[in-house]
């Protein structure tokens, strides 16, 4: 009798867990679609523009131009992303600058992506043989034209794998936006868990959704790398 009751309780608990899993799924997916994915895309695109500008400044021969870029990269890479989020969202209001949760998270992620991606872009540009520059100059190209038409396209192919990894990492990093009240995927999981007290199931569910998103992005990355590798001499 005891064993039978134990089995019934287990079955009931499993059914309730599955029901909670399915009922919470739309809310979590909504958070992913409305906030996690847009936050990732906007931050990465904005970060790439900032990264390219920073990389160009780092490659400048003028120390006056290099200095701000070096300081920016050092400051961002030397401090935790969470601290940067808190400074922007919770710290800036102390000096009268109030920014809503989503823009605050976007600014923090753009600054973070810009610093790390700038080093990837800079290294990719430096990896291009100097002969490419010399060949461009011999046919009358200026440095800017050579950079735009010869160097950057080759550097872009080199930088795809590390930048793709940064993009996938950014998807997971957006979970930190929950701490500045952005209602993204993980924030939704936290809200549901606070009502149901079933933290383990809901956090595992959130982890599965993140994993599915990152797995799809990994497949896209692999396809892009195969496509680009067709133009590389073997």
Automatic annotation (TrEMBL):
Question: Which GO MF terms does the UniProt record name?
Answer: L-cystine transmembrane transporter activity
Could you give one GO CC term from the UniProt record? ATP-binding cassette (ABC) transporter complex
Q: Where in the cell is it found?
A: Cell membrane
- Top-rank taxon of the source lineage equals Bacteria
Ranges for domain ABC transmembrane type-1: 33-221
Q: What is its main location?
A: membrane
User: How does it sit in the bilayer?
Assistant: Multi-pass membrane protein
Ranges that cross the membrane: 32-57, 69-92, 200-220
Q: Which UniProt keywords apply?
A: Amino-acid transport, Cell membrane, Membrane, Transmembrane, Transmembrane helix, Transport
The answer to keyword Kinase applying to this record is no
Similarity comment: Belongs to the binding-protein-dependent transport system permease family.
Q: What is this protein called?
A: ABC transporter permease subunit
| Organism for this UniProt entry | Bacillus timonensis
